[in-house]
Amino acid sequence: MKIPLDVLSKIASALNRRDEVPNQELAKEIIADEDRQAIQILIEHLSHKNKAIQNDCIKVIYEIGESRPDLIVSYFEIFLEMLGSKNNRLQWGVMTALNYIAHLKPQETFHHLPRILETAEKGSVITRDHAINIIITLANTEKYRTEAFALLREQLLGSPINQFAMYAERTVPVVDKDNKEQFIKILETRMQDLQKESQKKRVEKIIRKLS
């Protein structure tokens, strides 16, 4: 059964809900129906004057993107434009969406990495987390592996202490014989900055695995 065109009546704020369950349920309905018209309505309302509506719409959109990136990939340029939003929730939401579709648009994503990284530098922790994932996705493609890993190296060397162990763990799948020595050196260098024993153990585990 197709979702009716009053799709906005199903988002959390319209139902006076403070939780995300309605948005998640709506995403599942849209995925099940492959309802591109509903997605278009959500996209159009990302610029709504009501921030609650913006926030709900981007939540539904990236929930869709996590499972079915093909359904939102055509909105790549719109997500990119909205990285400049003053609404922090919307900003990290579109970065999340870009993360989920990066593997479908590697060339375009690589071309716009400067903008993505600039946004990550100024944005929230979540914004940065997804930007790192985007670089890792590109480093996992043969064409962009070398340049993406070089950017990843810069991010690892300058990342916040609390995020470093997580970023290092996420990087492991794109470490190969050509960059392994360089990666281990980064781990050893940043190890000196880590203050929590749990963080050090996570990094030490990676070094043991690669050595």
TrEMBL record:
Residues 177-204 form a coiled coil. Gene3D superfamilies: Leucine-rich Repeat Variant. Keywords: Coiled coil. SUPFAM superfamilies: ARM repeat. This is HEAT repeat domain-containing protein. It comes from Flagellimonas hymeniacidonis.
